[in-house]
From TrEMBL:
The keyword Phosphoprotein applies. GO terms for molecular function: aralkylamine N-acetyltransferase activity. GO terms for biological process: circadian rhythm; melatonin biosynthetic process; response to light stimulus. SUPFAM superfamilies: Acyl-CoA N-acyltransferases (Nat). The gene is Aanat. Pfam families: Acetyltransf_1 (PF00583). InterPro entries: Acyl_CoA_acyltransferase, GNAT_dom, SNAT-like. Its EC number is 2.3.1.87. This is Serotonin N-acetyltransferase. One of its GO terms (cellular component) is cytoplasm.
Length: 205
């Protein structure tokens, strides 16, 4: 059994009761809300959301389409998508890193033996922003990481105006990040991830 299938908080969550047909038989409809790891087939939908969310703010995307496909092929288990009635509305993409702090190489590499999960991007579709979906998705993602035996902490870099958002999600600032993209400077942040054995004893993982 995969780690994902064993986690109840990542299984489909029905936010409303299923509709019934006139004869009382349940219709075959998509779940109102579902969380699952992404696959390479989701890459285009991911990029469309990311492009709209980031280009208007910073002029560039954290991940381009070929990079999204790269990570979803190498480590799909470190991604999480939120789907509503089959449509992607928010997502996180991560990869593994094997050093204490992020470097320029962390933007494109997946270090399979690493114990730090580098969160490359969190984005929410424009039609459902300002609804708390980003915070909810990050909470679910961190809960999922706690059940992965190799994950010890989560790392990310963000622009200074986003620091309060990630602090509310439980991240702490480590200081300026050595990574730069054009004229943009970033703050590096981390969140501890408890070991697999502790979580298995205490949360049913």
């Amino acid at each position: 059994m995969s780690a994902l299938s064993a986690l109840p908080f990542l299984k489909p969550v029905h936010l409303r009761p299923p509709r019934s047909s006139p004869r009382g038989q349940r219709r075959h409809t998509l779940p109102a809300s579902e969380f699952r790891c992404l696959s390479p087939e989701d890459a285009v939908s991911v990029f469309e959301i990311e492009r709209e969310a980031f280009i208007s703010v910073s002029g560039d995307c954290p991940l381009h389409l070929d990079e999204i496909r790269h990570f979803l092929n190498l480590c799909p288990e470190l991604s999480l998508g939120w789907f509503e009635e089959g449509r992607l509305v928010a997502f996180i993409i991560g990869s593994l890193w094997d050093q204490e702090r992020l470097s320029q190489a962390a933007l494109t590499l997946h270090k399979a033996q690493g114990s730090a999960v580098h969160i490359h991007v969190l984005a929410v579709h424009r039609t459902v922003r300002q609804q708390g979906k980003g915070s909810i998705l990050m909470w679910r993602y961190l809960q999922y990481l706690r059940c992965l035996p190799f994950a010890r902490r989560a790392l990310l870099m963000c622009e200074p105006f986003l620091v309060p958002f990630y602090q509310k999600c439980g991240f702490e600032a480590l200081g300026p990040c050595e990574v730069t993209v054009g004229d943009l400077a970033f703050v590096e942040m981390q969140h501890p991830v408890r070991g697999h054995a502790f979580m298995r004893r205490n949360s049913g993982c």
